[in-house]
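Priority: medium. Attachment 1 of 2:
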């Protein structure tokens, strides 16, 4: 059978042994966040494999990591960005302590094996399949391998902001959810620092001439609580374990629309009989929609203009840090196309997950429709028993390859 007669599925099934070898190679390279030597080593491996397929590689380096950008030119119209990351949360020496291994269930283990190294290898074999199938009905496919995803950095954020406006669609190749789960919405994040200045005084003899900064902060916290989406009457009913007991798959559907967390509060006062002259709080706000993020940003900043306790002054700094990854109408069309591919080829249903955490998808979504978590399925990331389900490597890589082809052929959706 010639290459042109070979189906994408047959090609990708044939790649599986090489997929395993490549995954073992980069899993056994320590490339923790902030490790410039390790991320450089993985970047060189990845870039070489993609260059062999015709990609043009570029490296961006800082004192903490190497970032890799590889471009493939086609003859069509659509431009696609795929984002993965080569850094892990593990320190140097971890790979020697627990190197890559595969168990009897075909699950692979090792530092960063699922988050995100299996997905890094997946993108390579998707591009290999497209090349060997002779598919070039795209204008350009850009692959960005972030070297600092686990901790974030101005370098990484700048690269995503640079590349996203150059494309029509972004595919975030990060931690996939079980049973064909993908992520279609992520919350955006905003941070605020609240400072309250009051008037110190003796609680017994001078309370009439003092103003408690702590009391004012308490009332501000209550106002923040009222701004957030309502919380359940019994949060214990919504733990992952409790939902599982009820036969409910937890795919983020119960996450409140808008959440406000007052994570840190304090005062310099250390005496119970002194009315505090200062108080402070650090606040994190997360929302699924840009409109809600902007509305809450204005409402929170407006608290500085209100008097909560006479004689106190409120200062609020900070604001929106990262926008949400919204599920727009165009994103839904991308999701529906991916679902149809999985249904046709594997008779399986794709579950849409929503998430409160951030990925590079939050940043690309500011500029371009973004779909997230199309990678190989993994479990327990960031732990010493992190694993990747190699049984999903071929299906997920095939679905990705077909998704790229069909999106290119049908664009604009």
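Attachment 2 of 2:
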């Amino acid at each position: 059978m010639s290459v042109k007669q070979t189906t994408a599925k047959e090609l990708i099934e044939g790649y599986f042994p090489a997929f395993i070898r490549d995954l073992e190679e980069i899993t056994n390279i320590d490339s923790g966040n902030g490790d410039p030597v390790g991320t450089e080593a993985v970047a060189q491996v990845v870039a070489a494999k993609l260059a062999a397929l015709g990609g043009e590689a570029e490296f961006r380096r800082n004192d903490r990591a190497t970032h890799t950008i590889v471009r493939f030119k086609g003859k069509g119209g659509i431009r696609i960005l795929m984002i993965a990351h080569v850094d892990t949360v593990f320190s140097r020496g971890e790979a020697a302590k627990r190197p890559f291994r595969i168990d009897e269930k075909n699950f692979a283990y090792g530092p960063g094996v699922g988050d995100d190294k299996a997905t890094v290898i997946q993108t390579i074999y998707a591009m290999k399949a497209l090349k060997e199938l002779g598919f070039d009905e795209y204008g350009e496919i850009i692959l960005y391998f972030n070297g600092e995803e686990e901790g974030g950095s101005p370098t990484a954020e700048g690269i995503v902001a640079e590349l996203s406006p150059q494309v029509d669609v972004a595919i975030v190749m990060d931690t996939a959810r079980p049973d064909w789960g993908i992520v279609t919405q992520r919350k955006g994040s905003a941070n605020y620092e609240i400072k309250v200045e009051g008037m110190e005084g003796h609680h017994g003899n001078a309370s009439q001439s003092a103003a408690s900064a702590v009391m004012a902060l308490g009332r501000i916290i209550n106002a923040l609580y009222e701004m957030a989406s309502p919380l359940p009457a019994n949060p214990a009913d919504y733990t992952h374990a409790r939902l599982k007991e009820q036969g409910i798959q937890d795919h983020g559907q119960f996450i409140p629309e808008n959440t406000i967390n007052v994570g840190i509060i304090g005062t310099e006062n250390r005496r119970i009989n002194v009315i505090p002259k200062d108080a402070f709080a650090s606040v994190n706000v997360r929302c699924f929609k840009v409109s809600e993020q902007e509305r809450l940003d204005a409402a929170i900043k407006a608290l500085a203009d209100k008097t909560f306790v006479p004689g106190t002054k409120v200062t609020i700094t900070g604001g929106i840090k990262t926008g949400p990854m919204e599920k727009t109408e165009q994103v839904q069309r991308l999701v529906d196309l991916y679902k149809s591919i999985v249904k046709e080829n594997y008779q399986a249903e794709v579950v849409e997950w929503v998430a409160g955490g951030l990925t590079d998808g939050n940043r690309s979504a500011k500029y371009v429709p973004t779909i997230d978590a199309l990678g190989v399925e993994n479990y327990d990331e960031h732990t010493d028993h992190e694993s990747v389900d190699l049984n999903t490597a071929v299906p997920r890589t095939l679905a990705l390859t077909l998704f790229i082809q069909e999106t290119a052929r049908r664009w604009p959706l």
